[in-house]
Design goal:
This protein is α/β, with parallel strands linked by helices and 407 residues long. The protein is 62% helix and 7% strand. The protein is globular, with a radius of gyration of 21 Å.
Length: 407
């Protein structure tokens, strides 16, 4: 059973939530705590899969409580409930919670969010993944420049100049950001010569995923990862991220969701570099064996390590407290059918973009997807979303992206 801990200092609100979730009492083991201290006591007695906390509470507020949960019980998925006035850009993008729910909370959204969090928590806390991560001495850290950037962007007077100066202070980060921006798959018609130029062309919001991606890839390139593998993963990931954003825009996702689709696309294979960094030759042999046997790399990873690169990537983003739809898009990009929602999300964008990019130019230009792309598409998932008919249009977007990259 899914174990859910719900924390609020408002007795009436806590009772309303209890009534709202009554229909799930056979599926979920729920505990309702009046304030943060009883919640910490409950967590000390038994583990919980999902912790939901209200932001405004006396003593330790919901954010502080979830920060403690993150540090002491990292396997728990964390949801924070707050008002629109408290729902800042910084909170949406970075912090102790995996997802933020705005008051007044929609009952269906509240139940769906807990159910999705439970699915993700089960996926990212499976024994094989825990055992594997326990062997890895160092995981990439959240780049400090990204944290500083988010702190700057939350101010109403944030400016292109301030953000540019912040990024430019890190020479290596600047070089990596410019490499990403000037990638052929990013689609700019001019060469970007400095960070200020990039910020002026793209806008401040578009720099967030680029700075985070640049920081992560820079850390891993300085590790034991073979240069050829790092370059291969980066090139593929940029193509997937660029296409995922185009798909998200075409399907009407909002700006934040489209940005998350791009960031998830760029980071969807980051687990490969983490595995290569830690296991070195052993992981290279797994990759080679999968290629020689014409088997999916995912299956070979699961056979050898009891966890896949998608699991590792999702786990890493979960540790950083990034948004839930971003974590889902990375962790489930090979297995989107396990996602319970029935509408287009960043996960859909990344799954389809990854399949089309793996298919290569043939998948972009032929009447039907190439065999390689088709085998990577989860047709049952697309049918559930009732968007199979959109595949031709998505191929045309991919074809335009590929043509622009070759120009």
């Amino acid at each position: 059973m899914l174990r859910v801990l719900i924390v609020d200092d408002d007795a009436e609100a806590l009772y309303r939530t209890q009534r709202l979730l009554r229909a799930y009492r056979r599926d979920w083991q729920m505990k309702f705590c009046f304030g943060p201290e009883p919640a910490l006591d409950a967590l000390a007695l038994e583990p919980y899969d999902v912790v939901v906390a209200d932001l405004k509470m006396p003593g330790a507020d919901g954010g502080e409580l979830l920060a403690c949960v993150r540090d002491l019980y990292p396997d728990a998925i964390r949801l924070l409930v707050c008002s629109q006035a408290e729902h800042t850009e910084l909170l949406r993008s970075l912090g102790p919670a995996h997802q933020y729910l705005a008051k007044p909370v929609d009952p269906v959204l509240f139940r769906d969010s807990i159910a999705r969090a439970g699915l993700l928590g089960a996926r990212l806390s499976k024994p094989g993944l825990k055992a594997l991560v326990s062997q890895i001495s160092t995981l990439p850290s959240l780049p400090s420049v990204f944290v500083d950037l988010m702190n700057e962007l939350r101010h109403p007077n944030a400016s292109v100049q301030k953000v540019s100066n912040l990024i430019s202070a890190d020479v290596a980060m600047t070089a990596k950001v410019l490499q990403l921006v000037n990638s052929s798959f990013f689609g700019l018609t001019v060469h970007v010569k400095d960070v200020h130029h990039a910020a002026a062309l793209l806008g401040l919001n578009a720099l967030k995923p680029l700075v985070l991606s640049a920081g992560v890839f820079r850390q891993l390139e300085e590790s034991r990862v073979p240069a050829a593998l790092a370059e291969q993963v980066l090139d593929h990931s940029l193509a997937v991220g660029s296409l995922a954003k185009r798909l998200a825009d075409a399907e009407g996702l909002n700006r934040e969701e489209a940005d998350n689709a791009m960031l998830a696309g760029i980071l969807h294979d980051i687990g490969k570099l983490v595995l290569a960094d830690h296991f070195g030759l052993e992981y290279a042999q797994v990759c080679m064996a999968a290629e020689n046997a014409d088997l999916p790399l995912l299956n070979a990873e699961l056979d050898q390590f009891n966890a896949s690169h998608a699991d590792i990537g999702g786990y890493l983003l979960g540790l950083w407290g990034l948004p839930q739809d971003l974590i889902e898009a990375v962790a489930l990009h090979h297995d989107p059918s396990s996602h319970e929602l029935s509408h287009f999300t960043p996960l859909t964008a990344v799954h389809v973009a990854n399949a089309l990019v793996h298919g290569g130019s043939d998948a972009f230009t032929s009447e039907a997807c190439s065999l390689r792309a088709a085998t990577k598409l989860d047709r049952r998932y697309l049918a559930r979303l009732r968007c199979e008919r959109r595949l031709r249009d998505w191929q045309e977007l991919a074809s335009a992206l590929y043509a622009g990259a070759q120009a």
